[in-house]
Specification:
The strands form two sheets. The chain has a nine-stranded antiparallel sheet with strand order 11-10-9-8-16-15-14-13-12, with no helix packed on it. Strands 3-2-1-4-5-7-6 form a seven-stranded mixed sheet, covered by helices on one side. The protein is built from five helices and 16 strands. The relative contact order is 0.09. It has 285 residues and is of the alpha+beta class. The structure holds S-adenosylmethionine.
Length: 285
């Protein structure tokens, strides 16, 4: 092979390498002009379609995102969700995106939008990456993927907010819904797990009773047994780590109880007429 031929081949290969490199890297702070995601393009478990800015804003408002939050977007596409959470709320935000080119594209946008100190884009699989430190989880996936993630989500810290664009969680009913003529979004707040038997103690009188709680996701019911007499918990409500209910005392009226749950303990107050006394509960089983 002549020297000229060898040089031409070398130049040709160098050009090819430059072009392919340019496809997946950033040019300074600019998004590479070589790669533009296409709506509907293949994704590992679900294709890429971006949530509109308007709906992202509404969903983050519904989740009450703040600067105290750590938000994860599971399948973060072009990064619109973590970038918005950082820009609007100063929230620490993480996107997990399987497609490396899309992840690079999002990273370039993060730099362009000046939120590099707040947003991390991980190239990875949402079923393998750890997002257990999230306080808000954003998803725009598919119904079956939501259900696959559901057990993991339900094990997150009580009070963690989950928002899902378009797809719900089957029989786990949402706490809040946004519906428009052609779109939808849902919010769930992870409830504390309180099913079982609890000893309930009035800290002033030292009188103890037993509470038994049934729970399906955030919906609860149960009984309180005092002096051997059981009665239903009235208007029982569980939200994150807060439990409230009413019960009847003789013919005098209703006692209102509010408790904060922490693992196998609850602490709070009960109110009757003008009186407020401290109460607590401890798990029996
Ligand atoms: C419908 S798009 C939503 C993008 C973004 N969350 C939004 O709302 O604009 C779903 C994204 O998930 C990504 N994806 C699919 N399967 C994934 C997986 N197993 N792990 C991480 N990302 C995945 C796709 O590449 C796509 O970007």
């Amino acid at each position: 092979m002549t020297l000229i031929k060898k040089s031409l081949i070398y130049i040709f290969i160098s050009c090819l390498l430059l072009i392919s490199h340019g496809c997946s890297t950033l040019e300074g702070n600019k998004i590479s002009s070589e790669y533009k995601p296409v709506r509907g393009q293949f994704g590992k478990d679900v294709m890429w379609i971006a949530t509109t800015q308007e709906l992202v804003d509404k969903m983050l408002d519904m989740a009450k995102v703040s600067d105290k939050d750590v938000l994860y977007d599971l399948g973060s596409g072009d990064g619109i969700v973590p970038i918005t959470a950082a820009k609007r709320f100063n929230a620490q935000s993480v996107g997990i995106e399987f497609n490396p080119k899309l992840a690079d594209y999002a990273r370039a946008k993060v730099i362009q939008e000046n939120v590099k100190n707040k947003v991390t884009i991980i190239t990875g699989d949402i079923f393998k990456e750890d997002f257990s430190n999230a306080t808000v989880v954003f998803m725009y996936l598919l119904p079956e993927l939501n259900l696959e993630l559901r057990p993991k989500l339900l094990n997150m810290k009580p009070g963690t907010r989950i928002v899902s664009h378009y797809f719900d969680m089957s029989d786990w009913y949402p706490d809040q819904i946004i519906k428009t003529s052609n779109d939808a979004a849902y919010l769930w707040v992870i409830p504390a797990k309180i099913a079982g038997k609890w000893e309930f103690l009035n800290l002033e009188t030292k009188k103890s009773s037993v509470i038994e709680v049934d729970q399906i996701f955030q919906k609860i019911g149960g009984t309180i047994t005092m002096d051997g007499v059981a009665q239903p918990l009235l208007s029982p409500q569980l939200s994150a780590d807060q439990l409230s209910f009413l019960y009847q005392v003789s013919s005098l009226g209703l006692v209102g109880v509010t408790l904060k749950i922490k693992d196998n303990q609850m602490q709070g107050v009960q109110r009757f007429l003008e009186q407020e006394v401290s109460v607590e509960a401890r798990r029996l089983k």
